[in-house]
Design brief:
single chain, mainly alpha, Globin-like, 2 domains
Length: 180
């Protein structure tokens, strides 16, 4: 393993053993590949969702498409009726919130303070159906707008956790019989 200490020098990624027998340099080649993969993984982990999605233009497109889908799908009527006739103001607020939530500029906080998501949603009765309608719209928007499949999965999972947290209506509660 002493040869590994010398591997910090730049070695081309061309494998030295493509023609003929493997040589001592084949370890350098493999080490180079692993080093590059770890570097890429580290770079991806350091980039925010905001950067990975494509910044402001793609995030705006995602939010716009989300509300367009909500407006278009009959299956989303339950959540659509919770909003004003015009979705313009909500679209802007949601974009500002997602900007900060995905690791970009904290636009929502700058304009309105702490999001207090659960508190802001308490006036609305949100159960499984509303959660599922919201996720239907968001997943469709993610599929249409976000090109990176891994990022789509990550965002969908994160959105699902938030959507579940917004539920505020007890469902399927079996009442206990009253004692005489």
């Amino acid at each position: 393993m002493r040869w590994c200490r010398k591997l910090r020098r730049k070695i081309p990624l061309d494998p030295p053993f493509i023609k003929g027998k493997p040589t001592a340099d084949h370890g350098c080649f493999l080490f180079n590949i692993v080093e590059k993969l770890l570097s890429l993984q580290s770079e991806i982990q350091q980039r925010t969702h905001y950067q990975r999605i494509g910044g402001e233009p793609v995030l705006r497109e995602l939010v716009h498409r989300f509300y367009a889908i909500m407006d278009e799908l009959p299956e989303a009527y339950g959540i659509r009726r919770m909003h004003a006739a015009s979705l313009d103001e909500m679209e802007q607020k949601f974009f500002e919130f997602l900007s900060g939530w995905t690791g970009g500029p904290q636009l929502y906080v700058e304009h309105y303070g702490h999001p207090r998501l659960r508190m802001r949603h308490l006036p609305f009765s949100i159960g499984r159906g509303e959660r599922d309608q919201w996720m239907l719209c968001m997943n469709q928007a993610l599929n249409e707008v976000v090109q990176d499949e891994a990022l789509r999965r990550e965002l969908s999972g994160a959105f699902a956790k938030v959507a579940e947290h917004m539920r505020n209506r007890a469902e399927n509660i079996i009442p206990l019989p009253l004692a005489n």
